[in-house]
Amino acid sequence: MSSNSAPKVGVIMGSKSDWPVMEHAVAMLERLGVAYETRVVSAHRTPDLLFDYAKGAAERGLQVIVAGAGGAAHLPGMVASQTPLPVLGVPVESKALKGLDSLLSIAQMPGGIAVGTLAIGKAGATNAGLLAAQIVGLQEPAVREAVDAFRAEQTRTVLDNPDPRPDAE
């Protein structure tokens, strides 16, 4: 958990091997001061845990779930089928198809079970953390202010460094 406050975001993944991608979601949540919890919840190896986790998420105070998965990537959709909370899916790069299989599995949800699908890998995980913070920020002004500050910092960085050449000052 990121702080002493109750977690607002659940960051879950299908396997411990997904952590090198999903840690970027956690890093963004920490940067923006959003309390979170993180754990492995496998759609295929621990389906009962998945159902219990998803069904109890709202009553535990979570406001959004970030779910990363590779390959068949059933985790985000299965979680979304068991909770009214927004679920953000992060496709984790797979060995066989470089994450395209994960992306398509998460994006091609049937109508009526929504999963917000992000980009494959690090960029997707980073943006999932940012989007989760934006959702939490709808109810928590301090988080909204942290998101605003982050975005202003990005703008400043670009404006302060307009010359793309490595040796430019």
Distance between the termini: 40 Å
Q: Please list the strands of the largest sheet in the order they lie side by side.
A: 2-1-3-4-5
Q: Main beta sheet, described?
A: 5 strands, parallel
- Discrete helix count: 6
- Structural class of the helix and strand makeup? alpha/beta
Function: Catalyzes the conversion of N5-carboxyaminoimidazole ribonucleotide (N5-CAIR) to 4-carboxy-5-aminoimidazole ribonucleotide (CAIR).
Family: Belongs to the AIR carboxylase family. Class I subfamily.
EC number: 5.4.99.18
Keywords: Isomerase, Lyase, Purine biosynthesis
Short description:
By secondary structure, the chain is α/β, with parallel strands linked by helices.
Structure description:
The mean pLDDT is 95. This protein has 6 helices and 5 strands. A 5-stranded parallel sheet has the order 2-1-3-4-5. The chain is an alpha/beta fold. InterPro entries: PurE_ClassI, PurE_dom, PurE_prokaryotes. Its EC number is 5.4.99.18. Pfam families: AIRC.
